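Entry for the shared binder. Reason: the reviewer on the internal report wants the predicted structure included alongside the sequence.
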Amino acid sequence: MCGVIMLLLLGLLPPTTGEAGAELLPPVRLEAGGKPIDTHMGHAAPFVGDFDGDGVKDLLVGQFGGGILWIFRNEGTNTQPRLAAGVKFKDGKPEGCVPTG
């Protein structure tokens, strides 16, 4: 997939049925800030959760190359997400880094 994140909107959209064992929807290319999300280095590790405490699930994407953590804030709702352009995690530094390995 050449670094382009192709995944389901896990946790961002409600399931199509409440049945246990229901099939997953096909993968979709996610966009943030009007552009496809691309980690440029591959080996992306996505996580959906309320990162900023506003009650709306955001998307965090760990990038293996360089240990970069991308934060995509959800400016929409949990049922109609709208991801803002990604920003790199900084942790008080010019550019933060998440240890790998």
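Summary line for the report: The longest strand covers residues 44-49.
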